[in-house]
Amino acid sequence: MNFDIHAKDTHCNARAGSITTEHGLIETPIFMPVGTAGSVKAVHQRELTDDIQAHIILGNTYHLYLRPGLDVLNKAGGLHQFNSWQKPILTDSGGYQVYSLSGTRKIKEEGVTFKSHIDGSTHHFSPEYVMDIQRIIGADIIMAFDECTPYPCEFSYARKSMEMTHRWLKRCCDRFDSTSPEYGYSQTLFPIVQGSTFKDLRKQSAEVIASFEREGNAIGGLSVGEPAELMYEMTELVCGILPAHKPRYLMGVGTPANILEAIALGIDMFDCVMPTRNARNGMLFTTQGIINIKNEKWKKDFSPIDEMLGGYVSTAYSKAYLRHLVISGEYLAAQIASVHNLTFYLWLVKQARQQIIAGNYAAWKNKMVQQVMQRL
Amino acid sequence: MNFDIHAKDTHCNARAGSITTEHGLIETPIFMPVGTAGSVKAVHQRELTDDIQAHIILGNTYHLYLRPGLDVLNKAGGLHQFNSWQKPILTDSGGYQVYSLSGTRKIKEEGVTFKSHIDGSTHHFSPEYVMDIQRIIGADIIMAFDECTPYPCEFSYARKSMEMTHRWLKRCCDRFDSTSPEYGYSQTLFPIVQGSTFKDLRKQSAEVIASFEREGNAIGGLSVGEPAELMYEMTELVCGILPAHKPRYLMGVGTPANILEAIALGIDMFDCVMPTRNARNGMLFTTQGIINIKNEKWKKDFSPIDEMLGGYVSTAYSKAYLRHLVISGEYLAAQIASVHNLTFYLWLVKQARQQIIAGNYAAWKNKMVQQVMQRL
User: How far, in Å, CA of A83 to CA of A14, rounded?
Assistant: First the structure.
């Protein structure tokens, strides 16, 4: 994996770059649509490439491990072959899902024992096994196994958890570095900074993570309920420590405003279920602001969903039609809204990149945050 | 509306033709995907044109009347404008849904009073009002308001019901002929033959319906639970009476075998929810036979869904991936299976048309029925 920085903004820490993988180029800053179980919900793969213009998508280790399972994925030749997505894939480590979805789980030094949310069966994830799983899934970028602490979190718990995450990282790296890719293309491992919302823990964790000298670094444990200002504060602090010549990935973030603010702090990569999950509830992100399409005011609004954004889905269908589909519980509602929202997210980071290259990011960002976050 | 017959099979009553409407040409025999509430479930409009190659889709008067409602549809400029489908549309009369979906309904000579399945509100459909509604929806082909009898059905009830359907038809025609289209393009009205599974009633009904001399004729009240042989027998009898130079539409039919057999009897138009409804349950119709994709045998079958059929959806995704999506309850499962099944149905009638033109329909049909109905 290579990371090249093409431009830096002079008024903030935003940068425009590109990550080269064996499955293609990722222009940064980038938003990565979430394809939990090997499918970005309600979106065809060709829509990801042709309409949304995604450069990379996510897969979830926890979900893919449980279903379709490692035997199927391995026999298929990895996730790219299995789901017919030939561009880059990043897999999370499954840590977050083990804590959030699994009813009962026991976290020990050795690893985590948990019950499947599907059938209640018992499973064990160790840092080593999670590396093996992600080797089999075959993502281009794989994530270290960590504990994502909730918010709020006691200092003592956050410290102990962070220290274990660091020890687990050592085990992840040892396993990753002593094994080879399964399918002939290279993979890279990103470690994850933790430390909850405590400055000294975040500083300590960023230093430890940086010392591992991996090809890219991630920030986890944010966007879990804390105020946005606290998230920005932690992100700024950590970005000041993580090496500037490597990509920085802020996990699970966020709203359009969150993304634009974090880009200004030096973040290059984002993922979030918000554009797809909210789409399924009728919430649209548009170039003009946020729309709750269920509102009566859209009932007879026959204008396109987002003419400025362009593209088939956002211009062929009207707001009134989409409202009707959402209220009628039609599949097509989720399909239209998901493609639209993701197209908007990818448009937003592409605009951000162009503004960074033009040297105008900071000013544009302040205006854009107002524009895209207003309720229509 | 014009109907031209281009070829007739010499060994059976199959014919290849074309219906000209102001929204475009419909090559017959044709299968019409069902877009109940103004959307063919889980399918984008561009997929209907580009992938499935549909010539015409259906809308349901009952559903569209309740949601989005006539004010929205009229303000939009009709259903074509509302759902961005620019090819022909046929609407059923709502009769079938009033009987099957509405909890309580009272059928009288004047019309039907029923309660909405959505909110329990009370509504009244008369033959005249159903014409007015379909004028507002703006379908190219609209259907007469009829009573669809269940199977089995007492002779006396079937006779009385049929006679009322005939009287309603007179009222439909009077209203239709004394009103004008709402949106500048012409509409045509098809009457519906009833008579349950009684030969003399079907004969009588076909004669009455033919005497109205509309531009096309439909056969209703079949495919409601009766044995297939009985459906073919009634269809053959009715096709012998309905004028040969006008299109014949067999409503709500059916399996690939039903369609191929009915084409041989002289039917030109079909609609059915089967390809989309069964898709959502993981049942695939393919060029090689029927697949229950949930079966364990497809778990590691990484071959395309239907290589012979061609097209993005049927060749880009594997059986194993689709199985995984169905079992995981992913939206994309319904999307893939629906586009695939409809692509197959449209392929089947296109093949039938070519065989009729080649003068080889009867022999091809007997082979094809075996092939496409076998369980894989």
Answer: 33
**Tokens for A2?**
């290579």
Predicted structure pTM score: 0.97
**Which of B155, B141, B159, B133 lies closest to B66, judged by CA?**
B133
Cβ contacts of A271 within 8 Å, gap of 6 or more? A31, A32, A33, A34, A58, A90, A249, A251, A252, A253
Q: What is the pLDDT of residues A225-252, one digit of tens each?
A: 999 999 999 999 999 999 999 999 999 9
Prior bond of B152 cis (ω within 30°): yes
From A43, A71, A327, residue closest to B67, measured CB to CB: A327
| B96 marked ligand binding residue | yes
Closest CA to A197 of A226, A162, A171: A226
Q: Which residues of B touch A (CB under 8 A)?
A: 37-39, 41-46, 63, 67-68, 71-72, 75-76, 81-84, 299-300, 302, 312-313, 316-318, 320-321, 323-325, 327-328, 330-332, 334-336
Distance CA(A14)–CA(A367), nearest Å, equals: 16
Q: Is A29 helix (H, G, I), strand (E, B) or coil?
A: coil
Of B75, B302, B312, the CB nearest to A76: B302
Give the residue numbers of the binding site of A for substrate.
92-96, 146, 194, 221
Mean pLDDT, residues A95-106: 79
- Phi and psi (nearest 5°) for B240? -70, -20
Who has greater pLDDT, B101 or A162?
Answer: A162
List pLDDT tens digits, range A301-321.
Answer: 999 999 999 999 999 999 999
Separation in Å, CA of B302 to nearest CA in chain A: 7
Domains and CATH numbers, chain A: 2-272 (3.20.20.105)
CB contact under 8 A, B46 and A327: no
Q: What angle is formed at CA B111 by the lines to CA B107 and CA B114, rounded to 5 degrees?
A: 60
What residues of chain B lie within 8 A of the CB of A331, using their CB?
Answer: 39, 41-42, 331, 334-335
Could you tell me which of B88, B86, B92, B84 has the C-alpha nearest to residue B28?
A: B88
Cross-chain CB nearest to B41 (options A81, A321, A330): A330
ipTM: 0.97
**CB neighbours of B220 closer than 8 A, spacing ≥ 6?**
B96, B146, B148, B192, B193, B194, B251, B252
Please tell me the distance in Å from A190's CA to the nearest CA on chain B.
28
B316 and A83 within 8 Å at the Cβ level: the answer is no
pLDDT at B102: 65
Classified as helix, coil or strand, A27 is strand
What residues of chain B lie within 8 A of the CB of A327, using their CB?
67
Q: Are A152 and A100 in contact (CB under 8 A)?
A: no
